[in-house]
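Still learning. Show one?

>
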Amino acid sequence: MIDAHIHLDMYEVEDQEKILQDLNHENVEALIAVSNQIESAKRNLELARLDERVKPAIGWHPEQLLPSEDEVEELLKMLEEHKGQIVAVGEVGLPYYMRKEYGWIEMQPYLELLETFVKKAAILDKPVVLHAIYEDADYVCDLLEKHDVKKAHFHWFKGSKHTLDRMMRNGYLISVTPDCLYEEEIHRLIEQYPLKQLMVETDGPWPFEDKFKGSITHPWMIHESVKTIAELKQMNVDDVYGILLENTKRFYEI
């Protein structure tokens, strides 16, 4: 299986080493290592150089202050220079949780930044990894449709049935985290969304509750998610493994 979304650079070095050492034993083939900003991207590129199972993506996480013009230019330059090493543009998107925390944020600059990355993904013919939930996903769908970007991955998605239907029609993929074991909202999403458009992720080092409470988030947890998906889809777990793995390999061209 493949962890379709992890912030590997954010782990302590000893935890990074432990995770990479564990991958074969835990039957995890690869990690899609998304970036938050420039230094994050540099660390992920270095991790990928040291271990080919790390598949890096370069982007600017939206739940933070906007980058300067120079930072945007550097990120675009990095995307161009490392287009042979990266598997995607990401993580990019819109600041949903910042808006909830601060009450109001001027959205236009974030939309413009996202459009810059969407256009770059189209030029490079790379998938785009998206942080866009609830109503934000509709704005993102508008941009993807505008620039005819087909390969979009909405990670840890949550949203309305209307938005899900739109994303299904467009062929976008979503991924679920280990919270699918205990969140009813995610159960409904899994039941509604086609298995051919699903992947599994950890979003590590983000921590989880229930049976994972107090544990460092580790790629082995995706196996628990696969079992939950199989139960909710009422399918054989081995068949679900095969489909999810093929989805991820095909999408990221691994």
The longest strand covers residues 88-93.
